[in-house]
Amino acid sequence: MNQLHVDHSLRRGFGLKSIDPLSKLVALFCAALLAMHWDKPIPLLIMLVSFVGLARYGAGMSWPRLGRRLRFIAVFGLPLFIITSMAAPTGEAIGAWGPLQITIKGTEYAAAITLRMFCLFLSSIIYIESTDPKDFVTVLTTRLKLPYRFVFGVSMALTFLPLLESEGRVARQARQLRFGRKPRGVGERLRMWRGNLAAIFTGAIRRVEQTAGSMESKGFGAYPVRSFLRGVEIGIAGYTLMVISVGVTACLWFV
Amino acid sequence: MTKQMNYSSGNGVFKAFTTIEIVLMAMLAAANGVMTIYLSPLNQALNGLGGPIATSTITGLYMIYGLLAYYIIRKPGTAVITYGIGAVVQSFMGSAYGIASCFAAAACYMVIAELVFAAFRYKKWNLSVLMLAGGAMVPIWFFFAARMFGYMAWGTDVLFIALGVRILSGIVMCGMLTKLLGDVLSRSGLLRRFAVSSGRRANQ
């Protein structure tokens, strides 16, 4: 029989880290829905400020780490703001540059879209920072009732990710060394990049047979059911978070 | 606390997959995650040059892993599992577009890929079908992305240019590259236990 001791003390942490992944996922999707529904900058700015606070004090992110993350998304957000403000000119013009016009409404809309991108990104970062991927994998099987063989694939991909990344980096460096200099022009860069892409996929596939063989020799998939060492319970805090998230989203939908 | 925890290995479509096929799908999803890391500087550079329209040129590359898995395994449900795993991996890597976008994009890709290969009854795996699948996977997600990131306000002409660039990227960077990469890997002997190799032998 699959009887074992489930140690919930394995899940430690404070704030959002103590809440199960499923409840936080519901909250995340509610926040995403709300962010996509609003197209005015003020409510999205308030949402972003709330997320910054939540990231710092709920997920325990340090200010420098938070700053680095925000700088990363700014690289994507700034061009989106510029292009949207130029491509969506409606209302009174405040400036013109050749055929391009800058309008108040267009700029407002661009600000809203950019803030939306920041909100979607930051809410995801809060989730990642406060969630153990192993708990997420467990929840997929135990709560969402997804087949464990499929869910194990998720677990495996997350495990192999750093390994494949380091292998790809070594292959890239080796190729650069053999080349003798930095690639010049588009053609050389494309050839180099094609080699890197092939190395990543070949490295991944090369491991398939060996990994599958090891798993089968240990009896993976031999039984229709399986058990987990780590249990993930949805506690009072989790249910409360879900109810509040859905309730707040429903109330704020008409703001 | 003692607790019995039994969870099903699945039924129907999921039972049809062998362990090696599940491992392959997981590895390709992980490889896509690694590729995303390497594409990040290119993506940022393109974004700086021409915003979301310029980044559309490499959209196809982000879909290649699911189509490649389908081309190699050739079983119904492959896209659902591979893109599902890929969505979780990308979510935990911290995508610039957020977790909701990762899941929404994966859902769009998997539905279209399954429909395209079902339409051909899982019997045609030539370049044209793969290019069709690569191009067809783009529009639905583009519609959602346009709604999410405000492209709807751009004006019809700009919107159609962006969609055209993305479809072209899907056809070339996803469909064509899948065929190229799949055949190269198949010839290397790494895929001898998969349907792609038996398919090649039958064609020879």
TrEMBL record, chain A:
Q: Name its cellular compartments.
A: Membrane
Q: Which domain of life is it from?
A: Bacteria
The residues that cross the membrane are: 21-38, 44-63, 70-89, 109-128, 234-254
**Which membrane topology describes this protein?**
Multi-pass membrane protein
Identification of the protein by name: HMP/thiamine ABC transporter permease ThiX
Q: Origin organism of this chain? A: Paenibacillus motobuensis
What would be the name of the gene that encodes this protein? thiX
Q: Does the keyword Lipid biosynthesis apply?
A: no
Q: Please tell me where this protein is predominantly located.
A: membrane
| Pfam families tied to this protein | CbiQ
The keyword Membrane appears for this protein: yes
InterPro entries named in the record = ABC/ECF_trnsptr_transmembrane
From TrEMBL, chain B:
Instruction: Give the record's keywords alphabetically.
Output: Membrane, Transmembrane, Transmembrane helix
Regions that span the bilayer: 12-39, 51-73, 80-97, 103-120, 127-146, 158-182
Keyword Zinc attached: no
InterPro entries in the record: ABC_thiamin-permease_prd
Per the record, the domain of life is: Bacteria
According to the UniProt entry, the coiled-coil residues are none
Q: What name does the UniProt record give this protein? A: ECF transporter S component
Q: Which organism is it from?
A: Paenibacillus motobuensis
What lineage is this protein's organism placed in?
Bacteria, Bacillati, Bacillota, Bacilli, Bacillales
